[in-house]
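Why does residue order matter? Because the sequence determines the fold. Keep that principle in mind as you read this record.
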Amino acid sequence: MTLPRPLTGDDFIAFDRKQAELGRLLFYDKILSGNRNISCGTCHHHDLGGSDGLSLGIGEGGEGLGPKRASQSAQDRIRKRIPRNAPALWNLGAKDIRVLFHDGRLETSDLYGNGFNSPAEEWLPQGLDTILAAQALFPLTARFEMAGDPEENEVGGAANDRIDNVWPIVAKRVRIIPGYGEMFVAAFDHIDRSDQVTIVEIANALAAFMGTEWRNHDSPFDRFLAGDATALSGPARQGMELFFGEAGCAACHSGPLLSDQKFHALGLPAFGPGKTRRFELQPRDVGRMAESDRLEDAYRFRTPMLRNVALTAPYGHNGAFPTLEGMVRHHLDPVGSRATWDRKDARLPAAEWLAAGDFIVQADAREMARQAVVLDIEPRPLGDAEIAALVAFLESLTGESALTRPLGRPERVPSGLSVD
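Structure:
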């Protein structure tokens, strides 16, 4: 059994404290959304382990938090669920992170001369310090996440025109708020006046917050890796041996971050609106292929990191499984699990007008057949006791300080808008 080396402080980017404090306010400020009604924190909340507790959430057009979130009204019905599960934010400030989003549509790259291969291509601004800063820009441009409809506000309209037209509008909203202007001058050496603030400083501040706030590697497993042989309980120790041995989990969940940062097909049950491309009329999600345009990437998704995974249910790129046990059992018998999966396991906010389409992809026999033949995991004949041990190990990845974050959720933000 080969275990990864321990994570240390040297594995993480050293973000500026003042920028992180500024990013904390921006993260929970609805001023960044088109209709000023949703923040980054709405779907990545402290109370929900940096996620939203839903399989497929509601972004723009919703009210409430987590499992209680719902569409606003019959007059302002949402038109689409968010097509993928809101990923957790743990340890995204690690230096080795090179690809983000379920389909990897953001990567470190020199392709466009700005450091990244992204949906913005050459229009992504220069000066973004990290891939985490680049990532922070894209929910702002997404119609169903934070931008809103084109006819509703100037941000939604700009996003409908060209992706980079959104960012100057959002930046101006922020910098004209006196409290923010002063904080940017204090946090960034090259900013002398508030009118110099651009979306680049906003993104770098958001990244500084996320990269420090959700850095966590003080779990029992981490203590074990550091030399404390007593850190893991009997079942967790057995589960670790299975994870890095017979169960084969470490084939993908490898290295210090417990992810190979590659793409694999798990054969998860299909549901929801799908991450469709412009020319697709039917709901489906082809995963990495939507970014790469390579057939061999069809239905493959990025391997998630696993620290604090017990805090971030439900699981899978579409949140198909509400429990760790369910997700483990699926890995061990993907074909059988998919055949017996219960639609009730999908945590979907109530929206009666969308219900008829939530599972319609399963009626497409050809699409189901295409998905069924793409599978990168093989059945493993493990019993209930071994499955329980694997779950115990996954629970041992929860940090002792995971629920005590260094900055936490603010009570107020400079815009004066409400904080979820």
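The mean pLDDT is 95.
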